[in-house]
Specification:
globular, Alpha-Beta Plaits, alpha+beta, tRNA pseudouridine synthase, 150 residues, four-stranded antiparallel beta sheet, single chain, 18% helix, 6 strands, PsdUridine_synth_TruA_a/b_dom, two-stranded antiparallel sheet, tRNA processing, TruA/RsuA/RluB/E/F_N
């Protein structure tokens, strides 16, 4: 995705959160796996009645099972689509998105905004570390690891 907004398009900032328990991460994946990006892009396409998928850019992608709150993304929408739908877009997305994804705010982004590169900080919280130790009974070239909690 280009950092520049194409003529006739408007960059829209999305503030969102999600419970990542049932997702295979943020980014779309082949094979129909459920992702946060896929859910939001499908919802946008549906509520704007578009045949085009408007691709999201996010401040920081998350892995499978990871939750997010205060996540920021952007999407470049045709100006006509924004004019036609902006007043009800947030409410329509809320009605279309599953319960484990919420878009809290939508607004035109300031000039030069890019969700990925404009982020001032990111904070990640992880559960207590899982130690990894070598299993002596496995050969090299196979998994070679097992996990245990301390």
């Amino acid at each position: 995705m280009s950092d520049e907004v194409q003529p006739g398009y408007l960059r829209i900032r999305l503030d969102l959160s999600y419970d990542g328990t049932d997702f295979h991460g943020w980014a779309k994946q082949a094979g129909g796996r459920r992702t946060v990006q896929g859910e939001i892009e499908d919802a946008l396409r549906t509520v704007t009645r578009s045949t085009e998928t408007y691709e999201l850019t996010v401040a920081g992608r998350t892995d499978a099972g990871v939750h997010a709150r205060g996540q920021v993304a952007h999407v470049d929408l045709p100006e006509q689509v924004w004019r036609e739908h902006h007043e009800k877009l947030l409410k329509r997305l809320a009605g279309r998105l599953p319960r484990d994804v919420r878009v809290w705010a939508l607004r035109p982004a300031p000039s030069g905004f890019n969700a990925r590169f404009s982020a001032l900080w990111r904070r990640y919280a992880y559960p207590p570390a899982v130690s990894i130790r070598c299993c002596a009974t496995m050969c090299c070239g196979t998994t070679g690891r097992s996990t245990s909690t301390p």
